[in-house]
Task: inverse folding
């Protein structure tokens, strides 16, 4: 009798054991911070999303255990070899009500917390700090609204690393020259847009992912309770260097953030002073080489030979060896229907003058002419 009972229960136990082993593996992976499961994150919103995800998972596991358990039990216990005869009936009002009401109640338990979480995600009002995030190919611009501070953030991983000419660092392709800095414990609203193509600003540990679309401004927010460094990436395919567009958020205690913001304001004011200065050719070439490496080399290559036809060569090109006004126009305003972006809003007058001077005199171009910041300022004003 007991042996027969065990044989009848075995098919019911097998699917449950299999699913339990699988779920146990997920929990073990979670404990080890594996990439198998969703990131729990560090914010209240990320915790809510994670809890909702895990609740949904376990409900689905329970449903799977019941459904497959009943199915395998029925197949085993009522098989033809045991003389089972199928029941004949046309309808069961009770059963139909049950399989309508039960799923509805299950879905209601999903909908209620999901709705509360969505309302919280989209409630960006009453922020303590507003940051405009603009996606460019292939970097981010951060502007602290009403604070007078803005800067670009670009990949700082050495080309030798991603060209397999040097060992890869700890934060390979997830490190930048200028991280976004925000205060801990404060509600920070992000206004997200793009200047060229569609990007997506994504930091998993903050549970923030928002598309950056040219001509549109999307809104999201975060409040990070503890200081720390959190990394993300562009999550929308945006061109050849999409994988080289990381995000780093440095969360500081409020006092340290205020000190940092004050220093950046001073630096921003100091950058305005050189606009009226006259630079030597050596100064312009040195600064231009640095600006070119950061803003132009990803497309036109460090040697200026480019990747034609999408990214034309600057070495010996008609632009770099032609009239300086035409060179200045295409760098400041870009060129429509091509990959050449506008750098008038990305670089200040000093950097624009330096990089154009560098391009006209590097790689054997040797035009001998140079631009001053005041020339760039006059050009922009005339336009």
Result:
């Amino acid at each position: 009798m007991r042996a027969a009972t065990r044989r009848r229960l075995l098919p019911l136990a097998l699917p449950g054991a299999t699913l339990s082993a699988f779920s146990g593996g997920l929990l073990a992976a979670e404990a080890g911070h594996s990439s198998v499961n969703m990131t729990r994150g560090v914010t209240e919103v990320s915790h809510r999303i994670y809890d909702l995800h895990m609740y949904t998972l376990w409900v689905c596991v329970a449903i799977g255990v019941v459904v497959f358990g009943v199915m395998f039990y029925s197949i085993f216990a009522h098989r033809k070899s045991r003389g089972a005869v199928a029941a004949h009936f046309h309808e069961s009002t009770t059963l139909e009500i049950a399989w309508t009401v039960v799923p509805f109640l299950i879905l209601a338990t999903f909908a209620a917390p999901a709705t509360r979480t969505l309302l919280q995600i989209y409630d960006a009002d009453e922020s303590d700090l507003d940051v405009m995030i603009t996606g460019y190919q292939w970097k981010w611009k951060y502007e602290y609204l009403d604070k007078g501070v803005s800067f670009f953030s670009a990949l700082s991983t050495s080309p030798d690393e991603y060209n397999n000419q040097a060992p890869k660092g700890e934060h390979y392709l997830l490190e930048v020259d200028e991280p976004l800095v925000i205060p801990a414990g404060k509600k920070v609203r992000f206004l997200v847009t793009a200047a060229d193509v569609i990007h997506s600003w994504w930091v998993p540990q903050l549970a923030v992912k928002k598309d950056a679309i040219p001509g549109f401004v999307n809104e999201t927010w975060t409040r990070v309770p503890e200081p720390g460094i959190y990394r993300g990436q562009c999550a929308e395919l945006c061109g050849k260097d999409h994988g080289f567009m990381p995000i780093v958020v440095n969360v500081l205690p409020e006092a340290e953030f205020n000190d940092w913001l004050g220093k950046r304001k001073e630096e921003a004011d100091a950058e305005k002073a050189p606009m009226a200065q006259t630079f030597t050719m050596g100064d312009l070439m040195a600064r231009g080489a640095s600006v070119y490496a950061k803003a132009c080399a990803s497309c036109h290559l460090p040697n200026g030979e480019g990747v034609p036809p999408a990214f034309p060569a600057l070495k010996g090109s008609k632009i770099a060896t032609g009239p300086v006004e035409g060179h200045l126009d295409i760098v400041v305003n870009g060129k429509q229907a091509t990959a050449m972006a506008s750098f008038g809003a990305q670089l200040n007058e000093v950097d624009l003058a330096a990089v154009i001077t560098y391009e006209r005199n590097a790689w054997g171009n040797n035009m001998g002419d140079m631009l001053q910041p005041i020339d760039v300022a006059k050009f922009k004003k005339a336009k």
